[in-house]
Design brief:
alpha+beta; Dihydrodipicolinate Reductase, domain 2; 2 domains; three-stranded mixed beta sheet; two-stranded antiparallel sheet; about 55% helix; elongated; membrane; transmembrane helix; Alkaline shock response membrane anchor protein AmaP; transmembrane
């Protein structure tokens, strides 16, 4: 669901940027050709705005139309910016659902418990998690920052066998698809000195 929304947003960005770029490129090439005289020497040497254009711009309704167009452009730009800022993190997770009602928990509760558990593993400096996609069938994105001397394979084994298993049990899910990204911290440039 969220993945489809992200794909639609990315496709809309590509199409919109291609259209704007195409219009600007066409306008630039037309102005260059006009200035070089490809459409005739009279057009190349003429005034930028002819008498017809000046007459049109002098009409009473033109400023109102310009303001209306500016508002439309500002609305579209604001809507695009808001769409870029949306993320796919869930707000709540559904634990049980039936005719009597449904039991939900906040995503931050499950995420916080997972982050705290993983952050306590040896070699893990920081853990950041997000639950995405669907409140009924969530997906996990887990980003770990490890110490430079961490046992990466050991951390991965504990995440898979303990943290993910605990998350599945807590959410009462048979499977929680997960993407785990691990990065190492850079070693200190000036390690602390110790007396031998």
């Amino acid at each position: 669901m969220a993945r489809d929304r992200n794909r639609r947003s990315a496709r809309g960005n590509r199409i919109g940027l291609a259209l704007v770029g195409g219009v600007l490129l066409a306008g630039g090439l037309a102005a260059l050709a006009l200035g070089r005289g490809l459409f005739g020497a009279d057009l190349a040497g003429g005034a930028l705005l002819g008498s017809a254009a000046m007459e049109l711009l002098g009409r009473q309704w033109v400023p109102y139309a310009a303001v209306a167009l500016s508002f439309v452009a500002a609305f579209l730009a604001l809507r695009w910016l808001l769409a870029q800022g949306m993320n796919d993190t869930l707000g709540r997770l559904v634990l049980e659902q039936g005719p009597e009602g449904r039991v939900e928990i906040s995503e931050s509760v499950a995420r916080g418990a997972l982050e705290q558990e993983v952050a306590e593993y040896p070699g893990v400096r920081r853990a950041r998690a997000r639950l995405t996609e669907s409140s009924d069938e969530p997906h996990l994105r887990l980003a770990l920052t490890l110490e430079d001397d961490a046992d990466v394979a050991g951390v991965w084994r504990r995440v898979r066998s303990e943290a993910l298993a605990n998350l599945r049990r807590a959410l009462e899910q048979e499977r929680v698809p997960a993407v785990v990204r691990m990065s190492m911290t850079a070693p200190a440039k000036n390690p602390p000195r110790s007396l031998a």
